[in-house]
Design brief:
By secondary structure, the protein is of the alpha/beta class. The chain is built from 14 helices and 16 strands. The protein has a domain of 110 residues.
Length: 456
Amino acid sequence: MSDLVTVVVPARNEEANLGPCLSSILNQDWRNLQLLVVDGASTDGTRAVVQGFAGRDPRVELLVNPQGTIPGSLNLALRAARGSWFIRVDAHASVPPDYVRRLVHHLESGDWGGVGGRKDGQGITPAGRAIAAAMASPFGVGNSTYHHGRCVRTVDHIPFGAYPTALARELGGWDERLLANEDYEFDYRVRRQGRQLLFDPELKIGWQCRQAVPELFHQYRRYGRGKADVARLHPASLQPRHVVAPGLLGSWLGALLLLPVVRMLAALPFAVYLLGLAFATAHTSRGLDRRARPYLPAAFLAMHVGWGLGFWEGLARRRVAHQSPSASLGAQGSKSPSPSGGGQGGGLARAAVHGAGGDRDPGAPARSVRVRRGRPRARLHHVCRRRDRPRAGPGARLLSAGPAPQRRRPAGLPRRFGGVRRGGDAGGPAGGVFLRSPRWRCWRPRWWRLSSVTPR
């Protein structure tokens, strides 16, 4: 008997597209399926469509994700999965009848951590057909193989991937902090574990792309913000194609700044891009009808500008902190170290605040080190001679022990110091100098002097 395969379809407001998608999955020649449809807080008739299919076929199961995010839906399905293989299919996609069988054939060999096919865009409107052609062009998406690949090969990312269920649970599922690009981040963790990803162009996925250029712009802007979040989590995951569009926008901004000074040099980035755009449009439009061809340059421009703008916005907003995957994933993840002593470096903060001998005496007068700029009449020798023994005394406040203190660096204070604490906490008095780096042993600037070490 064939193994049970779990197919997951995250859906949100997909009433129009969900029926053909579920029909293509249920018509697979691999009959032993568990079809999990995760409704992400839809406001249309998506849930009614799923319930209708579930009433006719017991293989269909409905799950509800109140958060509405794709990573949360995937983790919810991962917890409910009973199959040996975990396959994702989007709600606005359709797959051929042998899709599951080909995926399982590759996965059963044990050589691959994930398998995926080629995503062929399908356009209904003239703009949609132009968008589908732009997404299949190397000028539009770079060396993203799953858009235009023609041969079997290993890749860095697969669309709507199929994975061993045990591997997905071992990795902790998908990162729910990400609102986009969660599939690429998951594939990166698969590759970092030493597993490879296989791309098979015979696995063709019919995917309904955006049908209007403004919708495409907003989609790629969201993709760019998601890529910035992934880059903050895993800087080594960035590929050259990911930074070309942000670099293009940066060159345009620099050219605009140079326009009043050197006009010919300022026009160079725009001229180079327009030349490439004209060549790619002429090459790609050969297979398009006349009604769709005028939308092609706008589609290219919307993809590049949307991605680049979203990437810079994602870097500026800092929505995702650089830390290990949290325990909020579908399986148990690793906990990030606590800033107050739960992880590496917490003991250093406590020792610098309370001294090597233990906690500070509550009855002792509070002391602080105050440093100000002055003439080079004296040096500040050995501010911190050892990690656990501050030179200024057991009550000196050299490092913060509280979580997320508000810090401000006064004018003239070197960057080696983090700033001055505003207000106090339960661990000690207000005021004091923050030492940013735990690695250096002493600080001897020639232009600073110790003004006083006085009780407060």
